[in-house]
Amino acid sequence: MPQFSIRPQTQNQPLTDFQPPKTTLGSVPFGKETEGKPDPFQTILSPGGTLVEPGLKKLGVSAPLAFGIGLGVDIAVPGPGELSKSDDALKKLVDAVKLAKPARKSLEKLYSIERGKRAGAVAGILEKAEGEKGFIKALGKLKGELVPKKPAFEGIRNQLTQLDVDELFKKVQQFPNLDIYEKISASSGLQKVFEGQIPPTSQLRLLEETFGSGLVKELLGKRPLIEKIKDVATEVLNIPRSIITSFDMSAPLRQGVLFTTTKPRIAGGAFKEMFRQTFSPKNFDDWFINLKKEPIYKLAKESKLYIAEPGKLAGGLAEKEERFMTNLAQKIPLIGSIVRASERAFVSYLNKLRIDVFKNISNKFIKEGSDPETDKELFESLASFINNATGRGDLGKLNRSSQILNNIFFSPRLIASRANMLNPAWYLKQSPKVRKEAIKTFAEFVGIGATILTLAKASGAKVETDPRSSDFGKIRVGNTRWDIWGGFQQWVRVFSQMVTGERKTTTDKRIIELSKKKYPFETELDVAERFFRGKLAPVPSLALELLEGQKIFGESLTLKGEAIENAVPLYLQDIRDSIKQIGAEALFTVGFPGFFGVGVQSYIEKNKPIRGNRFNF
Fold first, then answer.
1. Are 59 and 131 contacting, i.e. CB atoms less than 8 angstroms apart?
2. Residues 115 and 239 placed together within one structural domain of the fold
3. Which of 224, 320, 407, 530 has the fewest CB atoms within 10 Å around its CB?
4. In terms of domains, do 158 and 271 share one?
């Protein structure tokens, strides 16, 4: 059987003769490890390979036939004339959805038809006069919703010609970035749109991929009012978070710290891409276009590797990176442009890091004999590990409530990711190969961190080694602390305090028993409560402070203080506080590491920060 690569084809070019350009998206070119040998993914993702062939057999067609009828993998992109027809048909479809009225009349008609059917069935049963048995049968015919799948708006099929409808279906069938199953699913979603239904999220994603965001925007506008109110509330509540987490490029040493430190070559490529995309929206958009042409992309997507696409609408706000779960902050005059640039920096670094690490380790697994078709759990486990290692933790049964959780907590998925990476039970759930890779990565991370602390101590800095102290694992010079652990230190410290029932002060190094009977009358429950309170999102945190009449560390509330804390980026707040402590040199000693994600705090000689920042994410 001939081998066909899954790649978009150019117009009038024979399918089997097309040679894709040699492009790479990663610091490690895909297939580099197998140079001089067939690219494992090109073999796997071809009709003669292991991913596509079984699927074609399930449909009862051969690979060549599938290509010929448009059901198979990608065929030639239509020419300019055909694209014009499909674009015109799409415009008609979008306009029809936009002008469509609520489905009241359509529902009444469907209700009437269904009632008639049920009445006829009941009448037939009652005519038989079967007594109680007949009554039970008749009652059964009346049960259930009259219209299980209610349309959201009036059907629009009659507002398009058959030629328009065919052009839209052809657009799906010929779209190069969808596989055969996705084309069937997208076509099903398109059919639902004609019938006045809003397709499920999975089909909306495929329609947006094929037709762009215009159609999905109009479809989402037809949702029930309560769903639209929920989105507006999320957008408004997340404005402060998006603003205070902007003005930096903190992803490398915060969410991405595990791979930034243990895979420096890949991290170098991600750094380069971050700078390319931060200052160029075009580079940002082009990267996604090029990514979807890469053979690895389909496997990554099927394995559920998280790739954030802020411009997409179908997945809703929950699909965005947690720091930027709003589109309103990006529209604020002057500040909005910086928020947008900060989002591009955050998203581009983590996306690049995730896809390159996935590509690198997947190549390794395939060389060792793993097959993405038969070893799906292995590659899904790999994607889960990479997601967790880069701050995109799995919320389990709470995944469907992630948007609500994000309104309450600062970064619920980051919280979950750090908890998972420190939890032995999480490692036991992973595939053996992935478990080995994850343990190795985390061990290397701890080793690198310990080496940095050792060098810092040898240079004269103070380093606390007692996990019961809030200074544990931090580098301290004077009243300034540097936390290099990307959020892991907090979990170790709180766990140690709760297990031992003790904490160590940062000033006089005393060991204090956690007890209601002894000063300062704190218990393990107080430690946990303060820890999770520090994880609250800005608005819930402020509401709690107003309710209690004081800040988390006991300071009094002031209008100026709250305005600064909720409207000035945390990065700038940290620099301001450090300048007060150590002078202008803080611009370099605090500003530079803080800009890339190192946690920095300045303390006066009390057991609390000088400004008592309540955020502890």
1. no
2. no
3. 224
4. no
Whether 7 is in a domain gets the answer no
Instruction: Output the pLDDT for position 413.
Output: 96
Nearest CA to 574 out of 582, 155, 451 is that of 582
Residues 259 and 408 in one domain: yes
CA atoms in the 13 A half-sphere facing the CB of 486 = 27
194 versus 131: the higher-pLDDT residue is 194
Are residues 374 and 288 part of one domain? yes
Q: Amino acid identity, residue 70?
A: G
Last residue of a domain, one of 388, 417, 443: 443
> Would you say residue 144 lies in a domain?
yes
Q: How confident is the model at residue 106 (pLDDT cuts 50, 70, 90)?
A: low
What are the CB-based long-range contacts (under 8 Å, 24+) for 132-138?
none
C-alpha span between 614 and 605 (Å, rounded): 19
Nearest to 316 by CA among 420, 384, 389, 232: 232
| 241 and 162 within one domain | no
pTM, two decimals, is 0.79
- Helix (H) or strand (E) run with residue 599 in it: strand 599-602
Determine the residue type at 541: S
Cα angle 52, 58, 60; round to 5: 105
Cα 174 to Cα 270: distance, rounded to the nearest angstrom: 33
E-only strand ranges, 467-540: 475-477, 480-483, 502-504, 511-513
Work out the angle at residue 534's Cα, subtended by the Cα atoms of residues 528 and 539, and round it to the nearest 5 degrees.
Answer: 135
In a domain, 8, yes or no: no
Q: What is the pLDDT of residues 195-236, one digit of tens each?
A: 999 999 999 999 999 999 999 999 999 998 999 999 999 999
Quote the domain boundaries for residue 24: 15-69
Last residue of some domain: 210, 227, 244? 227
Predicted confidence at residue 330, as pLDDT, reads: 95
Instruction: State whether 221 and 242 are in the same domain.
Output: no
Domain count, the chain: 4
Q: Please indicate, yes or no, whether residues 281 and 200 belong to a single structural domain of this protein.
A: no
Are 448 and 568 in contact by the 8 Å Cβ rule? The answer is no
Cβ 9 vs Cβ 19: under 8 Å? no
- Over range 97-123, report the average pLDDT: 77
pLDDT tens, position by position, 408-423: 999 999 999 999 999 9
Are 432 and 288 in a shared domain?
A: yes
Mean pLDDT value across the chain = 84
Residue 307 has pLDDT above 80, yes or no: yes
